[in-house]
Known about the structure:
The structure holds two protein chains of two kinds. By secondary structure, chain A is mainly α. Chain A has seven helices and no strands.
Amino acid sequence: MxxxxxxxxxxxxxxxxxxxxxxxxxxxxxKNSIEESFKHIDITLAQRFDxxxxxxxxxxxxxxxxxxxHTEVTKLRSQFDxxxxxxxxKTSNELSRLVSxxxxxxxxxxxxxxxxxxxxxxxxxxxxxxxxxxxxxTFNARVTKFNTxxxxxxxxxxxxxxxxxxxxxxxxxxxxxxxxxxxKILRG
Amino acid sequence: MFSSYDExxxxxxxxxxxxxxxxxxxxxxxxxxxxxxxxxxxxxxIFGLSIPNAGIQWxxxxxxxxxxxxxxxxxxxxxxxxxxxxxxxxxxxxxxxxFESANLPEDDPNYEMKWGYATNGKIDNFLIGESGLFYxxxxxxxxxxxxxxxxxxxxxxxxSELRLYKQVKSSGNERKNRKLIPRYQGVLYLADFHKHFKGxxxxxxxxxxxxxxxxxxxxxxxxxxxxxxxxxxxxxxxDEFNKYFKVRTTNEFEARYxxxxxxxxxxVAFRKRNRNPIDIAFRKRFxxxxxxxxxxxxxPSIYNSMKKQSKIAYDDLILFFRIINDLNLNTRIWSxx
Lengths: 188, 337
């Protein structure tokens, strides 16, 4: 059988089309995986916020500032429901600072340290801090993969067809590199 | 935490002296065994061939047969008794001394130190399956010895030598034979992991130094294809870690939660201290390590002094006991109890 030029042309066209399909799907899958990891961060952030709220209320119950703490926590919770991610992080950090302040007082109340609920919450926060760090690292790993594909030739051609943009990496605090000990962090 | 060998040596000195006496007796019995074996072959041969008397020849054949069998049995029995005495008097005593003389953390009154040793024991088949390291549908027989179990602080651990065999057909000229070939050979170490997780994460060693390692590398790929397990390969942020290990997991978020930057550094440091490949898995509640090597642990030799051999056994034990501290498995600041 003779190989005609149109056969070669068709074979090349089919291969290019297959490659384009695979690359298109790869970009879609990466985009979705980035969204998934972002949602994961959001969920963990919310769980961490809940645990911080509970630990603040547990400590406050032993001190003279229960009412003030409760008002402050309610205020922060309404702020946390804001859909803006940066606002959420800011509110979460504010709550961390509030817990920090309360934690200083824990030294004066040995009964808090012996409280099972308090100890459990401390461990939960440690775990959530690590899960949050892991989610951030996953997000960054996926974004890096996406950005690399977007910059490499010939996959960068899809940038224009699919209207894709380079994604920003999340900044990871170097203190998160350590295994988190909330007691140490909260004591400043 | 654990005492140095010099400190331990003073605690086991009496047992070593006693063992040295057993060793001297074993050497004598061993030499006599060989003399008896040669005599059982040479003397009947001389008499049987030089004296053309049927009675003498029958007697020579009788002496040759029973003398040879008795001598071989005696040699193996002597070495077997010596081996058991070494495990009982040296390995067991070393374990006892190591655990009893360990410096426990003063700030933790609940810190536990427990140990157990079974010379002919091995890690249970159930735990081998739970480890998540092996493709058990490709395994036909499991053998092992020197099982050591215990608890250091809050971390329970188990380890033993292990050989996992696969039965293969080897076709001869006339009939087909079946033989067992070791697929995995080394030490399996399991410890309770300090973080709670649900998925399955495997770290395969990437280093290839020998033909055995090349075989291992291809076997893993072959088994992975056959097993049909849905594990995704992920790349970690630590380049040095990626140089040593390939990470495959059912859940990327969980894998990164387990493999914190600190743990990755600790695993690389541990890997660097070992010449042979190490596969690691996180499954159920365990961290499992399989150290590939053909070394026979805690096996004595009549040719070396007891001090030298006890030092080798000490170094082997310390390597495994230190894993818990090296990987910070006693850090219990997470919700897992």
